[in-house]
Every structure is written in C-alpha cells, then in structure tokens.
Write a structure and sequence with these properties.
Elements: H1 2-8, H2 11-15, H3 17-33, H4 49-66, H5 69-73, H6 78-99, H7 102-112, H8 115-121, H9 124-138, H10 141-148, H11 151-169, H12 185-206, H13 219-229, H14 241-244, H15 249-298
Helix pairs in contact: 3-4, 4-6, 6-11, 6-15, 9-11, 9-12, 12-15
Length: 305
Amino acid sequence: MWEQITTNFSFSHLWSPFFLVGTLIVIFLYIMFTGPWRSKIANSEPVIWKKKASFIAGAIFFYVGFGGPLYLISHLMFSIHMVQMAVCFLLVPPLLLYGTPGWMLKPLLARGGFWKPVKVLTKPLVALVLFNMLFSFYHFPLVFDYLMTNYVEHIAFLVILFISSLIMWWPMVCPIPEWDTMFGLKKVAYIFGNGVLLTPACALIIFADSMLYDTYSNPATWSYALGLCLQLGGPVSPELYSQFVPMAPLEDQKLGGIIMKVMQEIIYGAVLGYVFFQWVRKERLKDDEEVNRLLSSTRPATRLE
C-alpha cells in the first residue's frame, strides 16, 4: 500500500514541508529556552531530560498526526483516521503538557490575558464534558461528512478540538504546580470518567449495521475530501477508491471504532498507572514524615552538663 501511496501522491503531500519546518522551529526554540536561553525568563528552573524528551516526542507526534503521512492516509481509510484521532488528541496533549515547564507557560498566559479563561475551562467537570462532547459531535455522521468536505470549517474544528484536548488533559498533567489541585482518587475517577464518556461514540461506530460516513463509502465524496486534504491541490480521481480501501467499508468502520477504544484504554491505562504510583509514593512519604516526627517528639532531649 505504501508503494501505491508514494506513486500517487507527491513528497509535499505526504510530508508537508512547511509544517515540518514549523515543527522543527518549535523544537529548536523549546531546546534553547530550556537550555542556553533559560536565563531570559524570570524565575526559570532547570528542566529534567524526561520532560524535554516528552515535549519533543509530543511535537513529533503532532507533526505526524497533522502534517505527516498519517494525516493523508487517515483520509483514505476510516480505521487510520481513528488512529490519527488517538495520536493527536489522546497521546500528543499529555506529552506536550508534561514537557512544558510552568515557568515558561506563566508569562504566556499572563501576557495574553488567558489566566481566568484557562482556570475556568480547566475545572475538571468542565474539561471532562467539553472535550468528550466535541469529540462525539465531530463524529456525528452529518457533522463529520460536512466537515470533511469543507476545508476551512474542518481545519477550524480540528483546532478547537485540539485545544479542548489540552484542556481535558490539564487536570491530569497540570504543568503549573500551584494549579495542580486534583490528587489521588480524584484523578483516578477523572480518568475513568473520560473513558466512560468516550465509550458511546466508539460503541455507535463498532456496532453500526450500516455505513455511517459517506466520506468513506461513496467514492465521489471520498475523492473530493481527499482532494481538500491535499491542501486544495486539485481533485482526485474516484477510481483510486478501490486501490486504497483494501477491506469492505463497514469492516473498516468497525475496525476504526475498535482501534479508538483500544488505544484509548492503553493510553488512559498508562496514565492511570502513573497517577496511582505517584499517589502511593506521596502517601508513603507522608507516612515516613509522620513517623519521623513522632520519633523526634518522643526522643529524650540531651542534657547539657
């Protein structure tokens, strides 16, 4: 299939050079401002290598999902579309948020006047409902087919959806320590809540008895949407449909729903494990501090001769 893709689509269509250059510039600026240029930002602190690796990985996955081959291939098959959704909205945001130091983010929020809106939108209940509502709305058949065949509206909605995914992940991976007020069981419940709210959309796709999306079942609509994906690069022949859809459209649709649910469970499960062990670690440290405090208070004072 990859040979067919490289034969029918140019390098720029697959790799989006301008998007790639923009990603490399962002990574370069991040490395410099967390390294040699860190002194230019007030109250800056050293950034551990794990956070740097997380941000760089998030930026790379962001490029792959929105500018690399995955973006184009997601227009060929619905199952790949759901892989792209999982990468862009469930994997990239926590990597970027974990890798962004709070001291870097504070001046940007303060200068743009975003403090109050961010505080309101990142309240757990608001963040939980906002992303899952927008994600489900995006995959409502009429909305989905409309967006996939209208370039400007599609890009605008993807931007909104990505911002909402950052908001959704914020309570779990808050980059500003003093704003991180959700701990332990609250974070565990929040993760479970996300899994529950995303399930209906996946179930609708998995158990549908007919095709929901004209974009992936009608060759004419498919070719038009693909032409828009190529950055308004012209129409694509509907005859290519049979070459790039190796399975029945309904099977591809069901597979897409399964992929989304499985990838969601894997990512949420990994975050859940991290949150749980961090919680256990904090509780142990508290217990150790309490034991040491009790021992020091009961220890007899040394008398001076």
